[in-house]
Amino acid sequence: MARKTKEEAERTRQQIIHAARQVFHECGVSRTSLEKIAKAAGVTRGAVYWHFADKADLFFAMREQASLPLFSRLDGLLLAEGLADPLEGIAQALNEFFHTLEERPEVRQIFEIMASRCEYVDEFATVQAEINKPALDFLGKVEIAYRRAQERGALRPGLESRTIALDTWAFACGLFHHLLAGCPDEAWRRQVPEMIAAHIALRRRLSF
User: How many separate domains does the chain show?
Assistant: First the structure.
């Protein structure tokens, strides 16, 4: 009986998170109340408060549901031990990120909410730094991957790992915001893997 109750509670929690994603995306975070989410989820406002302390807590739960598994996969590609070609690991991580945005609508929705449907004011004023952490962590791991590439002779001479990591981070951010803005050019969207390959090729030692 206790197990069934636990499973039911988890189902309700997931129901609330799913409803929050839909309502945040449709209405924007600042215009969304917990009452509105409760109604969309088909539960009481009290049920929402049973699982989440406030709207920010629910927002983080929604974000983690998509971002934690994704960034875990990216880490595995970027920092795999014994990777013969660290530059290929960077390319694979970038391709995995943008492929996920294209193929997983629920993940794309969450990133759209964080990027363009949330005003980081009032109760969300302190949230932005936490929201930006995965991107900054990614930057640090890309720098490690470039340093490994340099140690293995894969990197073009004269390049500094921190500088090109920042450049790759800016490149990925630009692609990310352009794609989330609803880029209508399907041919452009299909060229993302080629753009990533070209970006990495500019860093590769010709003889590697």
Answer: 2
